[in-house]
């Protein structure tokens, strides 16, 4: 079945460092790909998405490109801030008929000043 | 942006009792709502998908008689954990998708259930 694998955390970076969180997927068909972020004490929020190969999703300085050839959707940010500290989830739209999501295990990011 | 609320945020109950969790879409109509369960340091696992006015579709391995889902209106879905036991303790999260756009889900803040 469809699945998502993302790098395990926790990831600890200093402010202004470059961030990469790897995400690869296995899927039949052509799923949409998502990154969700969960700040402490809050629900998941959609960070960005891409719906087809070579699409680049971007938001708040974060970017991810849908790479069909490598089945990847790595999240990147050039300069992280303390406020980016959160758990990041990679997800794909599953095979269900109603758009259910399949999530990776999440990567906790801590950014230190 | 679209807002989804959950109530309660935390609940502690005794073994054998039932607990109801509400999920509301506050500023949009949600034709489809999803219920997830999240174990510590684990991913979100889809439990069931519900459409307004129809029976929920449960994922394999999820007991539909134990986890009762009702989606009575376009803004409200409820999850009732019946005869709860300690192994049901978990973080339950709902999400909602708007009309014609099930590709984007908006998540509630989650409900922490602890069964003693």
Explain the layout of strands and helices.
The complex is a heterodimer of chains A (113) and B (116).
Chain A: E1 3-6, E2 11-14, E3 19-21, E4 23-26, E5 33-38, E6 44-50, E7 56-59, E8 62-65, E9 75-77, E10 86-93, E11 101-103, E12 107-112
Parallel strand pairs in A: 2-12
Antiparallel strand pairs in A: 1-4, 3-9, 5-6, 5-10, 7-8, 8-9, 10-11, 10-12
Chain B: E1 4-7, E2 10-13, E3 19-25, E4 30-38, E5 44-51, E6 57-58, E7 67-73, E8 76-81, E9 90-98, E10 101-107, E11 111-115
Parallel strand pairs in B: 2-11
Antiparallel strand pairs in B: 1-3, 3-8, 4-5, 4-9, 5-6, 7-8, 9-10, 9-11
Structure description:
The complex is a heterodimer of chains A (113) and B (116). Chain A is mainly beta. Chain A has strands spanning 3-6, 11-14, 19-21, 23-26, 33-38, 44-50, 56-59, 62-65, 75-77, 86-93, 101-103, 107-112. In chain A, the strands form three sheets. In chain A, strands 2, 5, 6, 10, 11 and 12 form a six-stranded mixed beta sheet that branches. Chain A is globular and about 45 Å long. The mean pLDDT of chain A is 91. In chain B, the strands form two sheets. In chain B, strands 2, 4, 5, 6, 9, 10 and 11 form a seven-stranded mixed beta sheet that branches. In chain B, 36% of the residues are buried. The termini of chain B are far apart. Chain B is globular and about 40 Å long. Chain B is mainly beta and 116 residues long. The chains are: A mainly beta (113), B mainly beta (116). Chain A binds chain B through residues 4, 32, 36, 41-46, 49, 51, 89, 93-94, 96, 98-106, and chain B through 4, 6, 32, 34, 41-44, 46, 49, 51, 57, 93, 95, 97, 102-110.
């Amino acid at each position: 079945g469809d699945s998502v694998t993302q790098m395990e955390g926790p990831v600890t970076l200093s402010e202004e460092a470059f961030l990469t969180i790897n995400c690869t997927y296995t899927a039949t068909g052509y799923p949409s790909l998502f990154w969700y972020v969960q700040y402490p004490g809050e629900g998941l929020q959609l960070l960005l998405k891409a719906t087809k190969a070579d699409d680049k999703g971007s938001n708040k300085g974060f970017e991810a490109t849908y790479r069909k050839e490598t089945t990847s959707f790595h999240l990147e940010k050039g300069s992280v801030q303390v406020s980016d500290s959160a758990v990041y989830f990679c997800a794909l739209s599953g095979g269900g008929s109603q758009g259910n999501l399949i999530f990776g295990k999440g990567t906790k990011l801590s950014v230190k000043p | 942006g679209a807002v989804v609320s959950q109530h309660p945020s935390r609940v502690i109950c005794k073994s054998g009792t039932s607990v109801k969790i509400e999920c509301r879409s506050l500023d949009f109509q949600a034709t489809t709502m999803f219920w997830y369960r999240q174990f510590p340091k684990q991913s979100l696992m889809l439990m069931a998908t519900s459409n307004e006015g129809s029976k929920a579709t449960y994922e394999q391995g999820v007991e539909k008689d134990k986890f009762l889902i009702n989606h009575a209106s376009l803004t409200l879905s409820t999850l009732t954990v019946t005869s709860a036991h300690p192994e049901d303790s978990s973080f339950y999260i709902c999400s909602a998708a708007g009309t014609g756009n099930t590709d984007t889900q908006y998540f509630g803040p989650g409900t922490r259930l602890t069964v003693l």
